[in-house]
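ok so for the tutorial part 2 we go from a plain amino acid sequence to predicted structure tokens. step 1 is just haveing the sequence, like this:
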Amino acid sequence: MTTPLIERYRALLPVGDATPVISLGEGSTPLLRAPRLSERYGVELWLKWEGSNPTGSYKDRGMTVAVSKAVEQGAEALVCASTGNTAASAAAYGARAGLPVVVLVPEGAVAGAKLAQVRMLGARVLEARGSFDEALTAARVLADRGTHALVNSLNPNRVAGQKTAVHEIVEELGGAPDAFLIPYGGGGNTTAYSDALEELGLETPLVSVEAENRRETLASAIRIADPVHAPRVAETGARVLSASDDEIVEAWRELAAGEGVFCEPSSAAGLVAVRRGDVRGRVVVTLTGHGLKDVASADRHAPPARKVDSDPDAIAEAAR
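step 2 — the prediction. this is what the tokens look like for a chain of 320 residues:
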């Protein structure tokens, strides 16, 4: 039985005896050695596999804390704006808590698999005309009316939960790596990682990789034109790099075919820095979401299937 993240890291989180623990068994995700890619790029590469969280992304780390605190504070419902993963996490943890969930997503900008996941979890999904940033503004206004708790990363409880990934990595490695590499969408995870490093008294470099074209990138999870946490990200001292969609796709496919880890496109952003030679030594790339979150992109970019007769010789020939 997995210990709920809140119980495992209670001393580090803004919870008390009166806080109900709304959990789906989040956290304690695998830290995988990547031997082939380590040899290929001359580093000791580790993969923090956050796609193994209950809803398939790292968002569950923060959502367990945000929703638990929302219940404690008497919220009547939850609201968020999302490019997909926050929506799924809010919907799941809201359902677990018995709270209605309103999800605002930019019209036509979220992977279909994510929307299906959110709808199955019972949230009210509203496709807002306009950008993610406009949807977030609307969600914030609704939350200010007092009935709905905002569970985006502007909620400090979300960020508090997300920092636990760094604590897990350092615990399992028996010390800090030489660099942490993460995708950069809204910037909430960068601030969370920075908070954890400060708590641990570490000065380990933090590298956040954004899409070169934030407005139109195929990596929908980081398709955020104006990251709300940008000012704080600048204060953290994190090194921000930009990656083209071609680089992200190449890294994404290499993780799958080279190490057997099928993540969503945005999750591969950190590996771009490894492939470029921007980091050295023992490094940890956080893979933030599962590949099944965006099967349409996988279908477009994976090698096609081949037709073959049901004959052993034909099969052997085709398999060469």
